[in-house]
Amino acid sequence: MDKQRIGILGGTFDPPHIGHLMMAQEAVEQCKLDKVWFMPSASPPHKKMNGVTAGNDRIEMVKRTIDDVEGFKLSLIEFEREGPSYTVDTMKELKEKHPDIEFFFIIGGDSVEALHTWDRIDQLVEIITFIGIKRPGHEFESPYLDKIIAIETPLIGISSTMLRERFRHNKNTKYYVTDEVREYVEVNRLYDKR
Length: 194
Hints:
Rossmann fold; 7 helices
């Protein structure tokens, strides 16, 4: 029996936006994935957590983003253990819990080029395959190119940083995030003070 092919899309998701949805959907189609698990990071080692929205709010925004999307699921594995969330530890745990699944880790082009800085990257590339999202007309530079499936998606220049700024200054966020996320952010005033 063929193993199920699951993509993991990790991130802070502060907030999740349509660029995340597009990355996940293109990975499903181009790499023939069965599902994508959205995995919010509890304590990303490369980011200072002061200034990051509370975990329960980020989880709720991801739920609202993917709630009605077939094949997209929320994974809280990084919230279920203590300490910094290193991808290599998370993927080892997932592979132990789900030996019948082949995992792929979906990352943007900037992350591809920073892979050499990831904790225990040489172990990580031996246990999973990366799906790297290319910007049109841009080739990856990485010592791990043989461990990456490169796919192209339409260029969407949206970042969570830019969205937080737009929310803070009451600028348009329609079509950048789902209506459910926009309503949640506005009702809870998540980005008013930062």
